[in-house]
Amino acid sequence: MLLEVENISKKYENALTPAVSGISFTLDEGQWLGLIGESGCGKSTLLRILAALEEPDTGLIRLNGKKVLSPAWKLIAGHSDIKLVHQDYQLMPRHTVWENIAYSLRAYKPEYQRKRVGELIERCKLDNLSDKLPAQLSGGQQQRVALARSLAEIPMVLLLDEPFSNLDYTHKNAVRQQIVEMIRENGTTVIWVTHDTAEALAFPDTLALMRDGQWLQTGTPQTLYHQPNSEYAANFWGNANIVAADALAQIWPQFSIFQQKTGNVCLRFEHLELQPNPTANTAQARLLQTRFLGHYYEIDLLLGENLRLTAKANTLPNNHLLYATFHPDTLIWL
């Protein structure tokens, strides 16, 4: 086990609730953990504690079986094998892009420095910027420099705090893919904080949903999306119709599942199927509103007198009167 975290807690002075409360987990070499949650839920505080930059109230961190000393026990906070890419970049303002990236390689031979920095500049799309100072760069460019610098000397554990949040759309996908490939090639263990739900579902091996300093649910991205353990967890990813099962039973009384279970359910937008004509197990639905979202449409519907549901469709319906259905196995019972 590469990284062991036991019962980490942190409460700031005058705060009503802990920023982090009783967090424990383990990670193997090369494993990726994603942390996602609302702003202020404790994600960044947890990263700073893991990076040995902030003192926890309780808990223990081990790396390769050795205790990671907290700032109270070190003259200079931090750990040489754990690197944190900050949201605010923390670049050296009087040094060029090249010098910022090369700084952690100063103990290596010049030939290796040139090769490694050149590779990072190319893969992070920083060509033609190597002689620029941080003040001459956009926020997205500075973020790419910070990422390149963190990868210059390959760490055991890489902590990424919203690493792609300031990248413009033109560069985001390409740079993100290059960075992900590079980290995977190195076999680095990663803890990745993000607000981007698509990012959180796409890249980590394990995902933790945080709320009020605690882990509300952990598992694979597929588990968190398809098997949320609460209404909050189901709603977090969007694409969720949260309704009472009784309301669906009134529209689809033929589904026997509603005689067996009661409570609230989540019906994902993509699981509500629309058809132009009635068939078995369909219910009449009136189109209320549509939203074009690039590669699909979101379609708001009214079924019966007051049941409102949203569906996804690849094409825009031709009629305002549609027929909707779903497979009972796709319901998530909350």
TrEMBL record:
UniProt GO cellular component terms: membrane
GO MF entries: ABC-type ferric iron transporter activity; ATP binding; ATP hydrolysis activity
Keyword Ion transport among record annotations: yes
Superkingdom, natural source: Bacteria
Biological processes, Gene Ontology terms: quaternary ammonium group transport
Residues making up the signal peptide according to the UniProt record: none
Key words of the record: ATP-binding, Cell membrane, Ion transport, Iron, Iron transport, Membrane, Nucleotide-binding, Transport
ABC transporter domain mapped to chain residues: 3-237
Protein name: Iron(III) transport system ATP-binding protein
